[in-house]
Write a sequence for this structure.
């Protein structure tokens, strides 16, 4: 039985300059799932994330954590932020200290843990993000990808129940992006709920348990990946491309290599396995 | 400045406990400032050159260039002490007469000026030792341990970090402007520079808001709590610092 962990109900939010960022937005996040949020720039993804962490407060509507509305007082916010961690898009706005070690220790220390426990968590987070060798380097001498991994370690060390990531793989090289996704899967297997915004439809399709599609401050599509990408109207509205795997699958079906009833492949291996041997062609040539 | 910072993180004395380096620099600097003999600052200059170039592995040419920085300033202030003016040539070592006025150098003044010059340069070299071998982050940690008010150390943490963020922003903006011929002549240089300053100023506000948000997201409660990595304490170093100080002080007394 899946439990709700985060829920946005009819959330309205405008910035001080009048930009309407969220418009009667509804979204449900279930405990333990991997949720990908797709949407163009300015669709309201980052604003929504700031709501899930209590940084922004809805002008109307509400945010629930485990079916209870968030309390916007000091204690309520701290309780929420212990459980919900955000990795921001720009590591330069997240890293406040020139010392990698110091920066990662900031979050867990704020949780009121013992010094010994903080050290354990900092070391574990550094190992998980493979940044042990950066320990004695100052933040300003790191590359963008390294800073990004330090920013992620700073959240991991807090061991939150939900980790929200704003375009985590943007700016990472392919190897680190892949390893990072593996790390997210590992955390997810250990029970962490993961919410991630991305522009990468291929990644969202093969990684996520569920996909939410945002457009102009609203969630216009929500469901399992296969479900989302079988709605051409929705994809058009959100200006999303079809994942490459599905494009190939569609072409193979159209050209008669695969039957209509072939299940949609989740990843490249499944697609390759479903392609039959060459004998239909051979038969054709013999005749 | 960036160079100093770079070497602070990557020199051969990195593993040494910051307190030991601070003590060495500060004690030697105090001796240098209080020295009675002109040879003591020379000895300290040599000692620091050895410590910086040979022990810490800082390139000699970089250290030489750094020492030249305060030179103009020092020479100017020292000249005014060395030279004096009087009505007669009595007591002057070297003198020139301009009408009724005699301008020249008295020998004790020359010694005094040289001593002052060497004392200042010696003290500067002690501070360079600290700046070149001890990262700012560790100096801040030490200040926190020494119970310096939290407000000051927190400001230091943030300022030090954001110096580099804004330097990088400024460099990026400058590059973007140059690539569009923003600095092609004086007129456009002034215009581009003013735009750079405005853009940077706006960035400061945006960054500070973002920083507050990102820190709040990590349960920031009005105080920046961070953990410092512990360094190994090496008691031999304390003994060495003590012996060094004792030797210099004794020599200073002998030379007086």
């Amino acid at each position: 039985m899946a439990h709700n962990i985060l829920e946005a109900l009819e959330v309205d939010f405008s910035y001080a300059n009048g930009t309407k960022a969220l418009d009667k937005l509804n979204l449900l996040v279930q405990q333990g799932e991997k949720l990908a949020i797709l949407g163009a720039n300015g669709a309201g993804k980052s604003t929504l994330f700031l709501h899930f962490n209590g940084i922004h407060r809805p002008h109307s509507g509400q945010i629930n954590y485990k079916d209870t509305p968030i309390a916007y007082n000091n204690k309520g916010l701290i309780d929420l932020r212990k459980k919900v961690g955000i990795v921001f898009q720009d590591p330069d706005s997240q890293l406040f200290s020139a010392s990698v070690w110091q920066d990662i220790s900031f979050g867990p220390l704020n949780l009121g843990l013992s010094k010994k426990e903080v050290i354990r968590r900092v070391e574990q987070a550094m190992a998980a993000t493979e940044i042990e060798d950066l320990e004695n380097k100052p933040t300003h001498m790191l590359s963008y990808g390294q800073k990004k991994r330090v920013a992620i370690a700073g959240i991991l060390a807090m061991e939150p129940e939900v980790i929200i990531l704003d375009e985590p793989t943007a700016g990472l090289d392919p190897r680190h992006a892949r390893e990072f996704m593996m790390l997210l899967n590992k955390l997810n297997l250990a029970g962490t709920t993961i919410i991630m915004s991305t522009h990468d439809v291929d990644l969202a399709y093969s990684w996520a348990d569920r996909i939410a599609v945002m457009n102009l401050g609203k969630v216009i599509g929500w469901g399992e990946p296969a479900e989302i990408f079988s709605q051409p109207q929705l994809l058009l509205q959100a200006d999303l491309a079809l994942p490459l795997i599905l494009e190939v699958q569609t072409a193979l079906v159209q050209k008669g290599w695969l039957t209509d009833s072939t299940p949609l492949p989740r990843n490249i291996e499944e697609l390759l396995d479903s392609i039959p041997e060459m004998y239909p062609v051979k038969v054709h040539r013999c005749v | 400045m960036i160079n100093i910072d770079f070497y602070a993180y990557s020199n051969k004395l990195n593993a040494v406990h910051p307190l030991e380096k601070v003590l060495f620099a500060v004690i030697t600097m105090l001796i240098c400032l209080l020295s009675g003999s002109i040879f003591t600052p020379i000895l300290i200059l040599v000692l620091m050159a050895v410590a910086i170039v040979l022990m810490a592995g800082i390139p000699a040419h970089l250290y030489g260039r750094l020492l030249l920085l305060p030179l103009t300033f020092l020479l100017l202030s020292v000249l005014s002490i060395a030279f004096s003016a009087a009505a007669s040539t009595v007591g002057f070592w070297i003198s020139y007469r301009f009408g009724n006025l005699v301008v020249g150098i008295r020998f004790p003044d020359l010694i005094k000026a040289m001593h002052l010059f060497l004392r200042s340069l010696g003290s500067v070299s002690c501070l360079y030792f600290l700046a070149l071998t001890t990262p700012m982050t560790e100096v801040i940690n030490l200040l926190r341990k020494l119970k310096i008010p939290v407000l000051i150390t927190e400001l230091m943490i943030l300022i030090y970090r954001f110096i580099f963020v804004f330097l990088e922003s400024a460099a990026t903006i400058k590059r973007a402007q140059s690539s569009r011929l923003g600095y092609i002549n004086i007129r456009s240089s002034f215009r581009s520079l003013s735009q750079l300053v405005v853009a940077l100023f706006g960035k400061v506000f945006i960054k500070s808001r973002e920083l507050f948000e990102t820190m709040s997201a990590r349960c920031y409660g009005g105080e920046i709590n961070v953990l410092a990595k512990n360094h190994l304490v090496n008691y031999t170093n304390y003994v060495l610092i003590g012996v060094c100080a004792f030797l210099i002080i004794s020599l200073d007394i002998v030379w007086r």
Q: What stands out?
A: DSSP finds 13 helices and ten strands in chain A. The interface with chain B takes residues 50, 53, 55, 74, 77-78, 81-82, 85-86, 88, 90, 92-99, 101-103, 105-107, 109-111, 115, 118-119, 122, 135-141, 154-155, 158 of chain A (CB under 8 Å).
